[in-house]
Amino acid sequence: MGKSSINVGIIGFGTVGTGTARILLNNRSEIERRIGFPVVLKRIADINVRADRGIGLPGGMLVSDVSLLINDPEIDIIVELIGGIHPAKEFILSALKKGKHAVTANKALLATEGSALFEAAKKNNVSIGFEAAVAGGIPIIKVVRESLAGDRIKSVYGIINGTSNYILTKMTDEGVDFGIALKEAQSLGYAEADPAFDIEGIDSAHKIAILASLCYGLPFSFKKIYTQGITAITPADIQFATEFGYKIKLLAIAKQSGKEVEVRVHPTMLPREYLISNVNGVRNAIYLESDSAGPALYYGSGAGEMPTGNAVVSDIIDIARDIRGGSQRITGLGMPQNPGVKMKKMEDVLTSYYLRLSALDKPGVLSKISGILGKHNISIKSMIQKGRDRKAVPVVMMTHKAREKDMAKALREINRLPSVAKKTVYIRVEGEEN
Question: Residues with Cβ < 8 Å from 56, sequence gap 6 or more?
Fold first, then answer.
């Protein structure tokens, strides 16, 4: 039998830190009843000790000096909730070297510096919990790490950024343009004053980097992930997608083919009857397909004080059980890196495409465009031409599967045609033949 109680220290008392503290304090007796021993929040460190977070703390619990937590021999688990790379990395490394376990919700840190952190955890025989780093209130890390530990995961598709999903939902439902939808998301608190991490796909790329490493043993690879945001999506593209029977979502994708894993984030057209296509607003969803369990969709809150705080607490409880029982289940990722797999280059990815061209309405223009596509091994699945005019008119095409590098070459050639008035818009398509 291990320690009679497990003590916790939280670094960072913002939104998630407040939610975590609220659960640990308000549900202390329920947690003890369920796991058989107390988990005690001993101390919180934050640079701002005066702000009112709407939660009552015992006197002396909130301090500004992080070292009071890291150097306290009675604290067993350090929870890092300040975000960013530095000094979060240094705080966690210091805690690990002191023999303390760590829990973090910091997806940017794990996606970029995860290898160093997990190596330090292994060296010091302690654990890192990170359930809250991906999709907030959806326990997807636990599903992959535990429920599917004996299965082979074929593909992962995730709507894992609530801000972008809210904006695209607003544009789809109301026909407004991107700027208007973004301003509303900001006014409601769904988007930051500087929303770049969300709308440029960076946040989603951080999260899919973690999932790809967990699912496939791929080394942390955030910097290699093809990432494209939603800023160029227009109401016209959404309307054309609807006419073809699709919806546009910012999708994070990881899937294995042989010894290669493709990992990418970009706006994606999905058949509108798919369940994941109907995940709207700020909600998140992750679709997993594995050999044995088959397809499954995990849906819920991707962020927020209480859902994310709950994910942090679940990690705390898992580690507390391990400490108490003298065992250890979740050191590192719980799944070793696989030297037999590598990331697929984006230029080699096969997918279907939506193309929107602005072409002059003249004889022979469409035959030239289709000829260029055919020359680059791209076949047209369906096409819509809107209106007849001496000026440029929109021509919209859906293609069969094509290689990314072939499409890039074809579009460069098409965009140089005198009969094409504007740069061609393209959106990748998943589903059906994909």
Answer: none
The letter for the amino acid at 172 is: T
**What would the pLDDT profile of 365-408 be if each residue is shown by its tens digit?**
999 999 999 999 999 999 988 766 567 889 999 999 999 999 99
Q: Do 289 and 168 belong to one domain?
A: yes
d(CA 35, CA 186): 40
Task: State the Cα–Cα distance between residues 434 and 431, nearest whole angstrom.
Answer: 5
Which distant-in-sequence residues (6+ apart) come within 8 Å of 195 by Cβ?
Answer: 163, 182, 185, 186
Q: Which residue has the tokens 């609807």?
A: 242
Residue 168: pLDDT band (50, 70, 90) is very high
Sign of CA dihedral 145, 148, 150, 151: negative
Burial 400-429, CB ≥16 within 10 A → b, else e: eebbbebbebbbebbeebebbeeebbbbbb
Question: Does residue 70 share a domain with residue 150?
Answer: no
CATH number of the domain to which 389 belongs: 3.30.70.260
Mean pLDDT of 125-130: 94
Assign 434 to helix, strand or coil. coil
A 10 A CB-CB count for 385 gives 14
Handedness of CA 357, 363, 368, 374 (dihedral sign): positive
Cα(411)–Cα(425) distance, integer angstroms: 9
Catalytic residues: 207
As a residue count, the chain comes to 434
- 286 pLDDT above the threshold of 80: yes
Q: Which amino acid, one-letter code, is at 420?
A: V
| Structural domains of the chain, count | 3
Per-residue pLDDT tens over the stretch 295-343: 999 999 998 999 999 999 999 999 999 999 877 665 444 456 788 899 9
Nearest to 100, CA basis, from 126, 79, 118, 120: 126
Q: Report d(CA 424, CA 394) in Å as an integer.
A: 10
The whole-number pLDDT of residue 339 equals 83
Q: Determine the Cα angle at 243 with ends 432 and 417, to 5°.
A: 90
